[in-house]
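Long-time lurker, first post. I've been practising inverse folding by hand and with some scripts of my own, and I keep getting stuck on stretches where the structure tokens seem ambiguous. Below is the full token string for one chain I'm working on. Before anyone asks, I'm not after the true native sequence, just a reasonable design that respects the backbone. If someone could post their per-position residues I'd love to compare against what I wrote down in my notebook.
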């Protein structure tokens, strides 16, 4: 009788996805003020509901899955989800959950019509689901947002930004990479002067943790400090990242400037996404050599055109924001593909490249679109600089 060994498993192993997630406020406000004299909320959610929806973006080290993910399900809860799901939110007088049929309310969005009791804070949690297409499994991401209501006083402090909460940048259309966002602390309706307002800027990493922006960051991509103190204005270089969430916090002071924020409610956030539209397309066409000499000695030329569903881009923009590699392969059996040149257009003489005149030649253009810029380093990981000490950066494409 033959022998049988022990069994072993063959399983697919994939790297971890890097997540960028949060809850986007579509309309309304998470902060309310309650006027004791008038017995009114501002805003009153029974009149102007709060609408919010989670978002999930992923970065895959294996380049299989990336970008904004389609939600496959969202569960909403009042507070931390209980084991028996007893605090799960259902449609009713206080809440409504979008089914995708009502304008302005996306599918899975939570519509809050309930006013937060004055002087309190309530946490809303959600479990957002998406599909890890690499293994065909559903992934869950737990997120939360705090709803607050303060009793109205003329001296209530608020913090505002002068930019949208969602900034979308298409590199194919971008002409200004340096952007600014300015925060302003208010006391009631009056702006607090700079001598009595302190600010702090942060970014959120893929793991959900907030990280302080430092003076070193100012040399590379995000500048918001002067003499070791945070300014009210952030200047960021959008070509140095694909997506990031910025947060600013603030505090009022009279006398010595505080070293850290003291009021968790005084904060404002905005998100920046840098990406080429999914509808972008590239085509190639022949510019010369429609008729070829018998010995393959004529010059033949090609060019690419790049466009999306809105416009065709000029040659300068294509050269700046794409990487075009021209390749060719003889139709002779066993031939290998060869790289001819790079650039928006190119020309070559088939005979000079060693192609056999007895067989045709297939030419193609490999077009990669802009992803972001990266800092150049040496073999030891140190930044490369020019003669003036400026850090060298270069674009990468995908």
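-- Answer (accepted) --
I ran through it position by position. Result:
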């Amino acid at each position: 009788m033959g022998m049988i060994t022990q069994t072993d498993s063959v399983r697919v192993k994939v790297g971890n996805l890097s997540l960028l997630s949060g809850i986007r406020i579509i309309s309304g406000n998470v902060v309310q003020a309650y006027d004791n004299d008038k017995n009114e909320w501002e805003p009153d959610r029974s009149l102007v509901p709060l609408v919010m929806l989670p978002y999930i973006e992923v970065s895959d080290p294996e380049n299989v899955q990336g970008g904004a993910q389609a939600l496959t399900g969202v569960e909403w809860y009042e507070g931390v989800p209980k084991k028996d799901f007893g605090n799960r939110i259902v449609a009713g007088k206080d809440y409504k959950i979008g089914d995708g049929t009502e304008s302005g309310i996306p599918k899975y969005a939570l519509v809050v019509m309930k006013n937060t009791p004055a002087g309190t804070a309530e946490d809303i949690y959600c479990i957002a689901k998406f599909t890890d297409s690499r293994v065909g499994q559903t992934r869950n991401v737990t997120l939360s947002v705090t709803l607050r209501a303060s009793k109205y006083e003329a001296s209530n402090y608020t913090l505002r930004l002068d930019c949208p909460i969602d900034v979308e940048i298409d590199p194919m259309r971008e002409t200004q990479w340096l952007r600014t966002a300015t925060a302003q602390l208010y006391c009631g309706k009056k702006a607090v002067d700079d001598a009595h307002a302190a600010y702090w800027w942060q970014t959120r990493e893929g793991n959900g943790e907030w990280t302080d922006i430092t003076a070193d960051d100012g040399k590379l991509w995000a500048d918001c400090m002067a003499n070791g103190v945070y300014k009210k204005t952030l200047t960021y270089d959008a070509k140095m990242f694909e997506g990031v969430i910025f947060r600013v916090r603030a505090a009022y002071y009279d006398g010595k400037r505080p070293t850290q924020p003291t009021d968790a409610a005084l904060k404002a956030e905005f998100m920046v996404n840098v990406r080429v539209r999914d509808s972008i397309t590239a085509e190639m066409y022949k510019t010369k050599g429609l008729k070829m000499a018998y010995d393959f000695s004529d010059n033949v030329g090609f060019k690419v055109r790049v466009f999306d569903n809105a416009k065709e881009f000029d040659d300068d923009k294509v050269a700046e924001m794409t990487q075009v590699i021209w390749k060719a392969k003889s139709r002779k059996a066993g031939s290998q593909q060869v790289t001819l040149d790079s650039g928006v257009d190119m020309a070559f003489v088939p005979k000079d490249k060693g192609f056999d005149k007895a067989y045709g030649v297939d030419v193609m253009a490999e077009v990669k679109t802009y992803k972001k810029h990266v800092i150049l380093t040496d073999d030891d990981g140190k930044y490369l600089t020019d003669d003036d000490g400026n850090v060298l950066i270069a674009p990468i494409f995908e």
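A couple of notes from the structure itself: The mean pLDDT is 88. The chain has two helices and 27 strands. Happy to go over any region you disagree with.
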